[in-house]
Amino acid sequence: MSSRPIIVGYDGSASAAAAVEWAVAEATRTGTPLLLTYAFDWPIVPAVLSPGPAAWPDTTARHDAETMIDDAVAEAARSYPGLTVTGMLLDGSPAVVLQEQSRHASLVVLGNRGHGGFADLLVGSTSVAVSTHAHCPVVVVRGDEQWPGAHVLAGVDGSPCSLLALQYALEQAADRGVPLHVIGAWTPPTPRWSPPNLDQRDITAAEKATLDELLASWREKYPDVEVTTEVVADNPSRVLAKASRHAQLVVVGSRGRGGFRGLLLGSVSQQLLHHSHCPVAVIREIPPATAEQTDA
Length: 296
Prior knowledge:
The chain has helices at about 15-30, 60-80, 95-100, 125-135, 160-175, 200-220, 235-245, 265-275, 290-295; strands at about 5-10, 35-40, 45, 55, 85-90, 105-110, 140, 150-155, 180-185, 225-235, 250-255, 280-285. It is an alpha/beta fold. The chain folds into 2 domains: about 5-140, Rossmann fold (3-Layer(aba) Sandwich); about 150-295, Rossmann fold, CATH 3.40.50.12370. β3 (about 45) and β4 form a beta hairpin. It holds the Pfam family Usp.
């Protein structure tokens, strides 16, 4: 049980409601408090009767948002009497607000798209910004099917972020009492650049041996978790998206060992935010200085 709350970005959309439903189940399962946050850049209404550029925030929009968050909190509390759930209405960009709130959260949960304050979620800036800069794990709730007894899926490439993702995936599988399936994928070179006599089976077998060796110590630490591994010669994003069809959660690091080092959120995690068939947990490697600020 964590004293740090699970925070849900809420805006009243169907997608946000799905995020609340997932977060409520997680909070109930773990005994963690739940905080619903509505963050909004408030519309400015011109003061028509006043000279000059005077303006004020749209108080009607604020009242509607307050009612919306209060109703959502009341519904969650009514449906789950033992759940500690509160709501908060904050001014500002949703991405900035959630990043700041994540300093004191155990988890941030978002829907796959929203309206109003979260209108751009998963179409660009908000989802990428929160997943890139959050100070705790971020789960983006995707997929229409629910597979409560299904396995947890993790993508691992040996990078520091993917190892953190592996640890988180093992913890989730252990807590949920389900198996963990770990996938490593490598992208074969195009025929033009492929070395002569390249045998993909040899490379795949070597990658599989490396992955199994990596998991040996983790299997000892989590003896009750059934762990299976798989290595595929294909695009990692495509492999994980396809494998997510029958998983209850897919876990990846915010960036891997390949690609452009300047990108703060890797291509695999970004693609999964768009194409996964189940909720996606993005795990970020937090710099020591930032971690100290978070713990303070």
